[in-house]
Every structure is written in C-alpha cells, then in structure tokens.
Amino acid sequence: MIYFLPLLAVFLGYLIALFIKPGSSIGFKLLLAFSGAYLLSVTVFELLPEVYETGDNKVGIFIMIGLLLQIILEFGSKGVEHGHIHHEGNKGAFPFALLISLCIHAFLEGFPLNTSEHLLHGVVIHKIPVAAILSTFLLQSGISKAKVFLFLGLFALMTPLGSWIQLNNGSITQYSAYIHAIVIGIFLHVSTTILFEASKNHKFNASKLAVIIFGILLAYFL
Description:
The chain is mainly alpha-helical. Helices cover 73% and strands 0% of the residues. It is found in: Membrane. The chain crosses the membrane at residues 6-23, 30-48, 60-80, 119-139, 146-165, 177-196, 203-221. Keywords: Membrane, Transmembrane, Transmembrane helix.
C-alpha cells in the first residue's frame, strides 16, 4: 500500500483539477486545512517521538535542516506543497525548477512511510490537494498534455521510490533517524504553513476550525 496509495493520490488530484477549480472551491480549502492538521498531528504524535527515542541528540539539528531545506525547495516549487502556487514563467515553457523541487520533496517524504500506517494516510491526504493544484497549474501552463503526464508521472513515482529505497537498501538503515528527522522538518514547515494560510488575514472561520480540530483528534485517537 505504501507504493500504491501515493500514486492513487496524484491520480485523484488530477481528476479534481479536471472537474473543479481547486483554488476557489470551499470544499477543497477545507480538505487542505484538514490535511495540514492531520499531517502535523501524526508527525508530532508518532514520527517525532520515534526519532528522539533513538537517544541521538543530533536529530534536532536534522529537523532544522529539513525545515530549512523545505524553505529552499519552495524557491523552485513556489508553494505547491502547501496548496497554492506563485509561479510566473514563460507560457509553454517546461517548469524544470518546479519539477526538481517537488520531486526532491516527494522522494524524501517516502522514506518514513513504512514506520506508520497513519503517516502514510497523512501523506496521501496531503498529496491529493497538492496534486490538484499542481495539475491545474500544468494544464493552464501551455505545455503539451504529454509533458503534463510526464511531469505528474515523475512526481507520483518519487514517494514510492523513496519508500522502496528505505525498505531495500540496508546501508541506509543506520541513517534512518537523520533522514526521518529531515522529513519531520519538512512536514512541520509544510503543515504549519497550510494552517496559517488556511484563511485570509490568518483568521479561521468556524468550518475551517472544525476540520482542523477533527484532523488533530482523528490523528490522536487513531
């Protein structure tokens, strides 16, 4: 399932992009807020304690490295990871910087997925709105549909590739805590940014607050 569900999430995001306008849909914004709350909660409840249980005091450094890495990646991705995109490029030009940034992000997030089914679900729920925003941008960018499918295909494969390498490369095991710490930093940045951007002027309306609370409680009780 750790290989199939991330692929399915990108496909569902593409379908959403075809039939609705993710940027203006209230339901889509609620899904995004829920995904941010759930991903943050699973990271704090499960992944964070796991890396600190190793007793290695260096993991905190790697968490901060992950957070800074995500900030750097967003120079190329323009914010797709937290549900919107600020990309100004040449119409019809293939967005290589966007592809590289998103593939690095997706590749790294695949590494810890075998540690928790809940984390897998959190990544999948998060990836659906991200894929929808990305698909909308690509379809409107003027590049050919073949290139759109190539982009989405590469993006979809990166998370399963990260999971496969984690499970099948024994030499990486000794560095798992550090890699997972980097991913924690990435998740902390992405999920908190989603929550702070959930509404204009950083104010939550009742429906967004409700789905955020639901996401936190669901992650806790599961």
